[in-house]
Amino acid sequence: MLGTGSDVGKSIIVTALCRLFADKGLRTVPYKAQNMSNNSGVTPEGLEMGRAQIVQAEAARVAPHVDMNPVLLKPTSDVGSQVVLLGKAVENSTAVEYHKKKESLFDTACDALDRLRARSELVVMEGAGSCAEVNLMPTDIVNFRIAEYAQAPVILVADIHRGGVFAQLVGTLECIPPACRDRIKGFIINRFRGDIRLFEDGVRWIEAKTGKPVLGVLPWYSHITIEAEDSVVIENPSQAGGDRVTDPAIAVIRIPHISNFTDFDPLTTINGLQVHFIEKVQSLSAFRAVILPGSKNTRYDLNWMHRTGWTRQLQDFHDRGGHILGICGGYQMMGAAVHDPHGLEGGPGTTQGLSLLSADTVLKAPKTTTCACFSWNGIQGRGYEIHMGETICRGGSPLFSIHERNGETVHVSDGCTSSDGRAMGTYIHGLFDTPEVTRRWLDSIGIQNLNVSQQHGPAARNAQYDLLAAHVEKHIDVRRIETEWVRSNRS
Prior knowledge:
With 491 residues, the protein is an alpha/beta fold. The strands form 7 sheets. Strands 15-13-16-18-26-25 form a 6-stranded mixed beta sheet. Helix 6 runs parallel beside helix 8. The chain is globular and about 70 Å long.
């Protein structure tokens, strides 16, 4: 699945096909040679990979493995990223430095793909961004080059909602070499609104102009929720105040380098609870609680909070009785200071924290990546940790007790709670996937009348994959994909 641009629906369609073909009895796995996202997760082996491929693996009913996403780039600035190779952070690199290493990274990606193909029957591959970025094609390792290596048929995805779908498709074909053009077997048009019969002439025009079939037109849906791959879905959040906020409501601060924002997806599914991502400084009086999310550049985002005025707003909110929860980077920000003696996130130095918790953080390698089982006042939960550094609490009390990491028994504490119980911090991502933990947290912030169903977290995601698969099967010629390109390739 290649795209005419970013966020056109490649990940969603790969997710649907993984569920559809897995349910047809094929050992199916997803694959993306290179992903760029701060939304990551941890495999059962304690290795890091993109959340999108973890979602796709869940849809395929298989355990996630780093071979499904051998190269992960986690942006730390406008021109630099942390490079995660086969699940381990290996370096911070500028875009120029990274491009010089593309050949060795392509070899790594090919080896990972070969291993996946050896232990599965079908690999559903996903490209990145636009497959027609002519300036990047010579060093591309995630679009046509890896498709050619695999001798994989390509389906091109376009997004009609953003407009110009005819130019998207025809323009993409015009920008790419003939061999790449020949590899494209058909098109899927995503996010159609309105009466689909009105687009029948458009389908005929596309097929006549290109000589390639439109395999389906996917209508816009609002009844399905799948984890988003990129933070583009929460970009430019508006002010949330006045009539837009009804009690009970929770705010998530949309910091510049937000990561793992899908932590909060389970909260958005609770009837009667509002979750607002907010960026511009505003009064927080309408909210029951504020969450500080993970960050890929904690000190930068902490300085941003000081500079914009969020620090004073958060401190005032807490002083007036408000509840604040920090997760991972957000937890680090809540302490007295964040120290970076080795310059892991930029220049070495120290940044003053929000002073909501009596804690200090020192950023240091190696990176912690674990699948964790924890308990909170007798309630059992599961989540994962991805962070650099260590936080030492000098007051208050620990939040969670961790009793298992990557399958091994441990006895360690996690997080910190202030003496008044209204400021909490933890390194555990995915804590809201456990219904009992979600209920316990809602109780702690004074929200006690909402129903948190057992169809929550992983169970809820699994039901959504079924809904997505049914939606795609209804509107896309999956049978043709199966008979012409899946079954034929296997034979």
